[in-house]
Amino acid sequence: MPAAQPRARAAYAGLLVLLFAYLFYARTFASTDSFLLLRDQIRDWRFALGAFSDLPLTGTQSTAGGASLGPIYYWVLWLSRALLGPWVHNLPHAGAWGIALLQGSADLLLLDAIRRTTGSVLVALAAVLLAATASHDLSVSATIWNPAVSVAFVKLAIALRLQGGTRPSLWWTAAVTAAAWFAVQAHSAALFIAAPVAGSVIVDDLVQRRWIRILEQVRAAVEVILLLQVPFLLHALRTTADALPTRALAGAASGGFRVADSAHATLVFVASILATPWQGGAWPVVLVIACVATTLRWRQHVPVLAVTVGPILVTALGFALWQGNYDEYWYLPLAPCAAITVVLAATAWRQEQVAAALVLLTLLIQPTRLNASLGVYRMPEYGPTVAGALRILKQTHVVRRLDTSFQMPPFSDATFPYQVMGGTFSAEASFDAVIDRNGEVQFRPVPR
Fold this sequence. Notes:
By secondary structure, the protein is mostly helical.
């Protein structure tokens, strides 16, 4: 037995390395050729190219009104540019690579936490693969967009919560709260995941009526959130612009509570994210059954319920206050919770055999999922503009104009890669440059 333990540890370590490498490949699949570079990505990468002290103190503009509650998304982009940018001429797809590395690290921590909770590597692998290789998630991760950063911190919060057990220390509570709140800062919709994940640390103390302990846990969580909100508070003090989620607050104040609509949207969109490439009306029902089964199977395990069924219920109730239309990408941070719920429910009977079947099935549909991820949030014009810019810079760093022989998408800018890599424009330059779809460049002399 002792001789088998080092071999088992080595095999497990090998699995983690393979998983990390594959997920990085899947998330950056064709990103150098089809990176989505529109107005928002250009704006965000301009921030990343600057000094850390010049980064915004809030996140991106929020659908709920105002801005996201903190700058963690821009911090991740800036670190990605600082660490990976020099390897790729500081081009914006370095941001996607950085987010992919963050996501992959969170996936490994989540896998280990689920393994320790269930006692099964296969169960953990099935849950992580199901969530991490969802086509919508892969598409978002292939560009620079805040929901992907939120998903990474949701996974980290889940992993820490599972590892913390039923009576985490104050430091562990602080860590769970920090990870969960970073997810909220990156994407406001993650609030409905953060609340049950971080809030559940006091459940055992409530049952045991340890009131002093509850106050200590709550104080630790509040202090962490206040500390993380210092940048946002500074922003609010410096600007007259509305920084609060005014649209969401207006919806709550109106008194409308759309429980049925919100529950339907939650089930449909989360099922759609996880079920690709198979779509159908039965998947929301499957998700409901999975919630019931997981609740019954793990009813005595608060951490598991706090990262599975709890966020699904809180999300359905939270979005009931929203008075507008629902959008699928809002539910991306909830997908890991739903994936764990489905896998735990499916493996309640014959755990290892069913888990092995789920892993095999998820691996078999990887080509379809990867291909489906190319269908949205992609811009095939990115590859030619980058290749063309590199060819221009081999000849000159100054042109009068840069155009393309093909139509660029609205809100994009063919000149951005060229400028990022050091190219400039001057009315005194001798040539215009035109990039074609193959990335070839035609130099046209400027008439004098």
